[in-house]
Amino acid sequence: MADAEQLLTLLAVSESGSISAAAERLFRGQSSISERLKKLTEYVGEPLYRRDINGVNLTHTGEMLIPDIQRLKRAIRDIDSIIERRQRLHEGDLHIVATSLLANYYLPPYLDKFRELYHDINIYIRSGERYWNDSPIGKVDVFFYEGEVSPPDLPDYFETSPWQKNEIMVVTPLDHPLTKFKEITIDMLADFRIIWREPGSSIRNAIEKEFSRYGIMPQKFIEVSDLESVGIMVQTGLGIGFLNEIVLNTRKDWKISQIPLVNHNIITSNFMTAPHIRERSLVLSKFLEIVESDL
Questions:
Q1: Do residues 157 and 74 lie in contact, with contact meaning Cβ atoms separated by under 8 Å?
Q2: In CA terms, which of 56, 110, 133, 138 is 20 to 30 Å from 151?
Q3: Domains in the chain, ordered, with CATH?
Q4: pTM
Q5: Which pLDDT score, from 0 to 100, does residue 232 have?
């Protein structure tokens, strides 16, 4: 039977391009890496790689093995994750990764209730793109995100379910011309400068879809990367914007107006991705009982 460690070494060499780089990645000496490759080559019975002045290149046979080795690597990662979760069943930690919107505005009431009931539990919350992409899967209990955000590549025992919806509201400066109307329609917004999120955000996608339905393409806009910037810039008078109702209910300090849209129901969805029930830690199970209940 092929040795998994030797196969993963071949993958590391393929991805890094040299034995020295693979040794650094695997925290092994170069001689150890060379020995693994030698044994794997002997087992296969034909050359798997060649050295040249630019490093190491795989032969055709070596390249043929890579897709299956990548699947092996993912399988080992999933097994390690399961083992780590079982080891943490009774530990007092809760690890959450969430988009900034949900971490700042949706989760706090649930976290507050959880803290009241389980005050000895340590909670780790990571938000933003850095943590979304780089968090070790085995150390994350649950992901919260808006619909257009994709969770990282996760083991098969994770499942995704809808979790709350966001109603989007139009917001304007207090002295804006639109404030004289009790309600407005989407076409009335076409001539005003729009303050909105970056492409790909759930709010931006929903608004663009609604504009598209009416053949409207905003020509004047300011693009920002977070909801706080939308609120502050609207308050300053730089344009009109779109914010989640829950954000507006939380940020009473913003001096802005909100105006209902007639005949429009702009809603985005949130999602939660967590392990299947049998794979959850006891801490996570208690937290999700609160999340899935009405406070």
A1: no
A2: 110
A3: 4-87 (1.10.10.10), 93-164+270-291 (3.40.190.10), 165-267 (3.40.190.10)
A4: 0.67
A5: 94
